């Protein structure tokens, strides 16, 4: 029987378990936090920062429970953390040791992917050390796909989901004209969302990276911009067309006239102090916790439509979740499976965006909390 196992929703939130890992020979602390399981399965990313601790991981693992449950995925939420005590010496050795130590958890149903501070190469290293291969998990062995081709074609999936949320909401609002879009963050998520929004006929009038904001009220050449952007999401100012304007300074993107704002960068990009500067009708929270909780409420009260992170940026997690849990159907070629998964993920995001809209319109002070409470999920 499918059953979500998590802490008592009537009690203060606490994970199902927190495991402290010793990493022999490595100068680092590490933990795996499992907030909930379904049929013994849980999943989440591996964060490596100088400050990560079990309390932060517990919040992130709980957010994974929320995200996966709202997408109707039968798998619980988890998160791993690695906190180097100084500079990382031998990174490969650190990842190998992490994989060796976390092996019983990974082999036992706790999927650990990448997160802030860890790369796909790190994940490959700790998967190999743990003897973990997603293609060998029961849900995946039925699939006849070429895995590297599959992952290449799906590398835009989180940005695709973020764009899907925006497009579905515009559609529900009866908007049929090209909209001016500002993207705060031009990394993996921002770039993919930009391409999907432009493909749907909208115009990106500004993008922001960690250095500032690049604007063209007539529409930025997104493909050209991507070609002068590094893998870390920083745009090379020296390669920009002369038509663009460059604004330095934090939050210059808030001053750009637009209809749709997509946040795909840091936490608290919009906090209470920034709410009155938001000019777009719709704000899409593509990045995790891009809007502070009080700011979300203030934006809704001021009449903005807010599409929350837990609903819109589930794409990457949902992709892995559908495979691990066996939702992804067998008998399809790689392109057919990719198309099926895009449709499945888009349908969940659209459904949740519509529910959020309905609850907001009926005056709910916290639509996400209401959706979770309806499903008996601890907040
Ligand atoms: N990559 C995914 O699949 C995924 C999945 C779920 C959630 N997220 C979340 O989405 C957000 C973006 O992820 P990503 O993978 O695209 O990251 P990334 O590291 O590839 O890119 C981050 C972008 O944000 C910019 N940025 C950072 N600080 C900024 C600031 N203060 N102002 C303006 N721009 C700033 C960077 O310059 C870069 O362009 C993060 O919050 C991440 O946790 C990502």
Structure description:
With 379 residues, the chain is an alpha/beta fold. The protein folds into 2 domains: 4-132, Leucine Dehydrogenase, chain A, domain 1 (Rossmann fold, 3-Layer(aba) Sandwich), CATH 3.40.50.10860; 157-374, Rossmann fold. Helix content is 39%, strand content 18%. It has 13 helices and 14 strands. It has a 7-stranded mixed β-sheet, sandwiched between helices. It has a 5-stranded mixed β-sheet with strand order 2-3-6-5-7. A two-stranded antiparallel sheet has the order 1-4. Helix 2 (91-107) crosses helix 3 (120-130), helix 6 packs across helix 7 and helix 12 (334-361) crosses helix 13. The chain starts with a strand and ends in a 5-residue tail after the last helix. The mean pLDDT is 95.
Question: What are the defining features of this structure?
Answer:
binds nicotinamide-adenine-dinucleotide; globular; Rossmann fold; 39% helix; alpha/beta; 5-stranded mixed β-sheet; 7-stranded mixed β-sheet; 2 domains; 14 strands
């Amino acid at each position: 029987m499918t059953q979500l196992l998590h802490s008592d929703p009537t009690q203060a939130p606490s994970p199902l378990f927190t495991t402290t890992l010793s990493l022999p020979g490595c100068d680092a602390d590490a933990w795996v936090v499992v907030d909930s399981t379904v049929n013994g399965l849980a999943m989440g990313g591996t964060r490596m920062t100088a400050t990560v601790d079990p309390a932060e991981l517990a919040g992130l693992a709980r957010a994974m429970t929320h995200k996966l449950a709202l997408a109707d995925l039968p798998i619980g939420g988890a998160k791993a953390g690695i906190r180097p005590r100084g500079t990382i010496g031998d990174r490969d050795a650190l990842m190998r040791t992490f994989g060796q130590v976390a092996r019983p958890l990974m082999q036992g149903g706790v999927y650990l992917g990448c997160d802030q501070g860890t790369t796909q190469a790190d994940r490959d290293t700790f998967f190999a050390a743990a003897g973990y291969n997603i293609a060998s998990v029961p849900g995946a062995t039925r699939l006849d796909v070429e895995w590297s081709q599959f992952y290449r074609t799906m590398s835009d999936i989180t940005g695709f989901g973020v764009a899907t949320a925006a497009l579905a909401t515009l559609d529900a609002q009866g908007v049929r004209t090209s909209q001016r879009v500002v993207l705060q963050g031009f990394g993996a998520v921002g770039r993919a969302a930009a391409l999907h929004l432009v493909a749907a006929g909208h115009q990106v009038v500004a993008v922001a990276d960690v250095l500032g904001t690049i604007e063209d009220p007539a529409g930025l050449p997104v493909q050209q911009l991507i070609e002068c952007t590094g893998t870390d999401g920083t745009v090379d100012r020296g390669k920009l067309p002369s038509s663009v304007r460059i604004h330095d300074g934090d939050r210059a993107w808030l001053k750009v006239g637009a209809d749709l704002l997509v946040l795909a960068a840091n936490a608290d990009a919009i906090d209470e102090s920034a709410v009155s500067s938001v000019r777009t009708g719709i704000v899409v929270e593509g990045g995790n916790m891009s809007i502070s909780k009080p700011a979300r409420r203030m934006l809704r009260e001021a009449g903005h439509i807010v599409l929350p992170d837990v609903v819109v940026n589930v794409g990457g997690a949902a992709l892995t979740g559908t495979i691990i849990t066996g939702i992804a159907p067998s008998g399809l070629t790689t392109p057919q499976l990719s198309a099926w998964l895009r449709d499945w993920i888009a349908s969940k995001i659209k459904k949740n965006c519509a529910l959020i809209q309905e609850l907001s319109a009926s005056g709910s002070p916290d639509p996400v909390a209401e959706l979770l409470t309806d499903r008996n999920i601890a907040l």
